Amino acid sequence: MAEPGSNPDVLDSLRQVPLFSRVGESDLENIAALLIERRYPKNSIIVEEGLTGDYMYIIRSGRVKVTKASDDGREKIMDFLEAGAFFGEMALLDHAPRSASVRTLEPAVLAALSRRDFLALLRSSPDLGLSLIQELTRRLRETDEQATSVSFQRVEDRAKGLFARIARSESGTGERRITPALTHQQIADMIGTSRETVTRAVKELKESGWLEQRGKRYLVP
């Protein structure tokens, strides 16, 4: 472990995080000085569902997936996060067990902020408190939009929205972007439908030319 506060690009990384985008320069420097750098190899569990958390994390490089265990014990993918995203902040506010697990999809560098330091910062920085409220409001609005999508959008449109959101540029894919490996059941879990319905939707999207498949990964415009 090392303190990335001495790294000159830490402030730039923090400015890319929505949670800290409205925080003043002096507060940003205070935050940077408290961060602890942590490096994880591929397929490492960073936080585990059901366990109490003492840190929030900012992704500086790499990519992770957020999962929950379903009633039958299957892993249900909730989201994919990459550089600039953060997670674990709710456990710092209420000290309740983690609501999901987070695992690396590739080697990752994270910046960790402890619960004690986070709460101290909130008490001393009105800008950080306001920024936290705004970011949590944005997430709540996004959750509402996803719920509306499940209720009113066609499955094909929900699948397109998911693929477009999680795909990223990668060498060898030309002008298209590529998703992580996904099964039809995982896609179904993420967009709120059945595996059979996803199979039909994926077939239609491929026949329309919008979607290409490469093994368990998908290429999108």
Descriptive overview:
With 221 residues, this protein is an alpha+beta fold. It is 42% helix and 24% strand. The chain folds into 2 domains: 4-149, Jelly Rolls; 154-220, Arc Repressor Mutant, subunit A (Orthogonal Bundle). The protein is built from 8 helices and 11 strands. A 4-stranded antiparallel β-sheet has the order 1-8-3-6. A 4-stranded antiparallel β-sheet has the order 2-7-4-5. It has a 3-stranded antiparallel β-sheet with strand order 9-11-10, covered by helices on one side. Helix 4 (115-124) packs across helix 5, helix 6 (155-166) crosses helix 8 and helix 7 (184-191) crosses helix 8 (195-207). The N and C termini lie far apart (39 Å).
Summary, kept brief:
With 221 residues, this protein is an alpha+beta fold.
Number of helices: 8
The CATH architecture designation of the largest domain is Sandwich
- Work out the helicity level: 40-55%
- CATH superfamily label of the largest domain: Jelly Rolls
Give me the Rg, rounded: 19 Å
Q: Give the biggest beta sheet.
A: 4 strands, antiparallel
Write down how many β-strands occur, each being a DSSP E stretch of 2 or more residues: 11
Q: What top-tier CATH class of the largest domain fits best? A: Mainly Beta
Q: How do the strands line up in the largest sheet? A: 1-8-3-6
